[in-house]
Amino acid sequence: MDKFKDLDPLLHSQLRLAVVSLLLSVESAEFVFIKEKTGATAGNLSVQLDKLNTAGYIIIEKSFKGKKPLTTCKITKKGIDAFEQYVINLKQYINK
Prior knowledge:
The chain is of the alpha+beta class.
């Protein structure tokens, strides 16, 4: 595992990496959309979104659509920068 020390441990999780990758391609995404695209359970996705939010990689907005609660996620500049650095670091390992 030493050779992966430069990889962001937050993004080195399959689900968190999938979420960030997905959010890079959209302006924002609803929780249900992210859940469907990643195949994650609601509970696991909630935990991983919270970790990304705490790190400042995404913003989570809670509102209502009619009477139903609506959770929307959006990637931040910090999240974009972290993803880009992760990809650069990963390429360094591939090219060694």
